[in-house]
Fold this sequence. Notes:
Blueprint: E1 38-46, E2 53-61, E3 64-65, E4 71-73, E5 80-82, E6 86-92, E7 99-105, E8 116-120, E9 126-130, E10 133-139, E11 145-150, E12 159-164, E13 169-176, E14 190-193, E15 200-203, H1 205-210, E16 215-216, E17 223-224, E18 228-230
Antiparallel strand pairs: 1-2, 2-3, 4-5, 6-7, 8-9, 10-11, 10-13, 12-13, 14-15, 14-18, 16-17
This protein binds zinc ion (4 copies).
Amino acid sequence: RYLHFGPPSVAHGHEPRSGGHRMGHKHSKKTSPGEKHTSFKLFEYQCSNCSAKRPIQYFYRNGTFLPQQPRVVCGGCNTSLVVEPFKTVDYECPSCRKWQRARMPARPIPLNMYNVSVVSCNCGFRGEVSIGRLMDVACSHCWAHKRELRDVWIEEGDEVKTYCEPCQDYRRAYTQAPKKKGGGDPAADMEYTCENCFRVRPIHAEELLRSEGLASCSLCKWVGYPEVRPRGSQQQSSAATPKGHASGPSPKGASSSRRSTGDRKARVKPAPIDDEPPDPA
Ligand SMILES: [Zn+2]
Ligand SMILES: [Zn+2]
Ligand SMILES: [Zn+2]
Ligand SMILES: [Zn+2]
């Protein structure tokens, strides 16, 4: 579903992993935000050719997105195409209390116009709600995590400050994309450690096949051929895959999901999962 707030406009777009001519082991340099006062936020587009959903940079200056041309070379299929970038956001319907997703189209408007939006929920509710991104927020101290609606521009791996209930204090915490329930769009089944920012990044085996092993880090824009392994076979960013059953996503009951843990300290360093041998196939 798209939310509309204004006429479409045309301008200049870039996919982080730009162009097929940039294959090879060249490491793309980091675009430092604030450079020349132009920075970008990550949006997505859906390729009309290979139907992959891919990241795209959408530039802004002085708190307002610039008019830009959304034409990219799809990193998945190397096709040049005009795309309509969108931001996938979450909101909690005030009527049915369910978490819903929506797509906000990229527009040359102030960034803060993406904080609230008029939505229509399939329960019949229609009105203005706060929007953002539902994230798993893992405490850097005890690695307990909870699901929270964060700023719409937050990305996986960002550092945030949050009140941690187990710690009973405000802590530094890191965001991760909430794990999806089975079915529909499958969660990434592989992962790799970015050779530039050294964070563990999820990747779809399917996507990897299409790109012949080329990966693009959505956090730092590094592009290269990483060593890929099955998801969860290495547990550096600990909270990524807690041992045992991840409780189903229950945004509202997030705090209750950790009861019956018994000894919480046992979870500080989750053990590697042995039943998934690394298999670089
Ligand atoms: Zn494509
Ligand atoms: Zn609703
Ligand atoms: Zn904590
Ligand atoms: Zn990276």
